[in-house]
From TrEMBL:
<feature type="transmembrane region" description="Helical">
    <location>
        <begin position="113"/>
        <end position="133"/>
    </location>
</feature>
<keyword id="KW-0813">Transport</keyword>
<comment type="similarity">
    <text>Belongs to the binding-protein-dependent transport system permease family.</text>
</comment>
<dbReference type="InterPro" id="IPR000515">
    <property type="entry name" value="MetI-like"/>
</dbReference>
<dbReference type="Pfam" id="PF00528">
    <property type="entry name" value="BPD_transp_1"/>
</dbReference>
<dbReference type="InterPro" id="IPR035906">
    <property type="entry name" value="MetI-like_sf"/>
</dbReference>
<feature type="domain" description="ABC transmembrane type-1">
    <location>
        <begin position="78"/>
        <end position="289"/>
    </location>
</feature>
<keyword id="KW-0472">Membrane</keyword>
<feature type="transmembrane region" description="Helical">
    <location>
        <begin position="268"/>
        <end position="288"/>
    </location>
</feature>
<protein>
    <submittedName>
        <fullName>Sugar ABC transporter permease</fullName>
    </submittedName>
</protein>
<keyword id="KW-1133">Transmembrane helix</keyword>
<feature type="transmembrane region" description="Helical">
    <location>
        <begin position="12"/>
        <end position="35"/>
    </location>
</feature>
<feature type="transmembrane region" description="Helical">
    <location>
        <begin position="145"/>
        <end position="165"/>
    </location>
</feature>
<feature type="transmembrane region" description="Helical">
    <location>
        <begin position="78"/>
        <end position="101"/>
    </location>
</feature>
<feature type="transmembrane region" description="Helical">
    <location>
        <begin position="186"/>
        <end position="211"/>
    </location>
</feature>
<keyword id="KW-1003">Cell membrane</keyword>
<keyword id="KW-0812">Transmembrane</keyword>
């Protein structure tokens, strides 16, 4: 008699049980650093120095967040960061996609030389000092647009989007041309809608980069408080906290009563609170873009 190749009833149960346990462990390992950061951000600063904070604060306090929002400049910096992130993301996506579509056309004469020029910028950079003088010559120092103009085109994003556009069936574009659509109308009505998955991915990368950037604010707009970004303000707060807690006796909370010790912030506790404040907006946006990461809207639209 031939043995049946069907798995016994016990094997699927064991497999699914092992798979479930493994995935739960993987989720816990992935989430633990973030949960630990939240716990540290809500824990008293002097108690955090002792260590041993894992999933829950040992001495609960909101002083770390009060220290962050105590300055009125943090709110203005937040809106500057929001405006910078939104405008940079929209312009970068639109202009980079337009460039990628142009360079994806095989009938474009200057397709190869322009592509080579953009690729070279990924490998060679003039450096900080020439960039500073370029920004100065463009009269962008101390201007909000210094956050926008240098980030409107990305060579790497252009290559990624151009590669994705190459997967769009050419018959779709030819059908639009037969119907009388020009290149710009094809770009707006056909290419952009079909590129939503890759554009959502690139948009998240651009938004995270713009949101987390602080060095350009330090270099180009540090003389204007009204143009300070959230990340730059948080960096200054962290630096001032580290300087004020440089005394080891103060950092350990020696001689303080319980209320004073809970009100004290330390570099470790304030860093955790800053991490949460800076990451929450991106975490709110991410779920709305996740669905576009894998699924392409052009799948099954045309069969060649």
């Amino acid at each position: 008699m031939k043995k049946s190749l069907r798995p016994s009833g016990l094997e699927p149960v064991l497999f699914h049980s092992f798979n479930t346990v493994f995935m739960i462990c993987l989720v816990l390992v992935t989430l633990y650093p973030f949960i630990n950061t939240i716990a540290v951000s809500f824990n008293a600063g002097n108690d955090t120095i002792r260590g041993g904070i894992y999933l829950w604060p040992r001495v609960w306090t909101t002083q770390n967040y009060k220290a962050i929002f105590a300055s009125g400049t943090i709110y203005d910096a937040f809106w500057i960061s929001v405006a910078r992130t939104v405008i940079s993301t929209i312009l970068n996506i639109f202009l980079t996609t337009m460039l990628a579509y142009t360079l994806s056309r095989k009938d474009y004469v200057f397709r190869k030389p322009i592509t080579i020029i953009f690729v070279l910028t990924m490998y060679f950079s003039a450096g900080l000092i020439p960039n500073y003088f370029l920004i100065k010559d463009l009269n962008l120092l101390g201007s909000f647009w210094v956050y926008i103009f240098p980030t409107m085109i990305s060579a790497f994003n252009m290559i990624v989007i151009r590669t994705y556009i190459g997967t769009i069936p050419e018959s779709l574009l030819e059908s639009a041309r037969i119907d009388g659509a020009g290149d710009f109308k094809i770009f707006m009505r056909v290419v952009l809608p079909l590129c939503k998955p890759v554009l959502a991915t690139i948009a998240l990368f651009v938004a995270v980069g713009a949101w987390n950037s602080w060095f350009d604010a330090f270099i180009y707009t540090s003389s204007k408080q009204s143009l300070s970004t959230l990340q730059y303000e948080l960096m200054k707060l962290l630096s001032s906290t580290m300087n004020s807690n440089s005394n080891p006796n103060v950092a350990a909370g020696v001689g303080m009563d319980r209320d004073s010790a809970k009100a004290m912030v330390t570099p470790l506790s304030i860093r955790a609170a800053i991490t949460i404040v800076a990451s929450v907006p991106i975490l709110v946006v991410y779920p709305f873009m996740q669905k576009y990461f894998v699924v392409g809207l052009n799948v099954g639209s045309v069969k060649e």
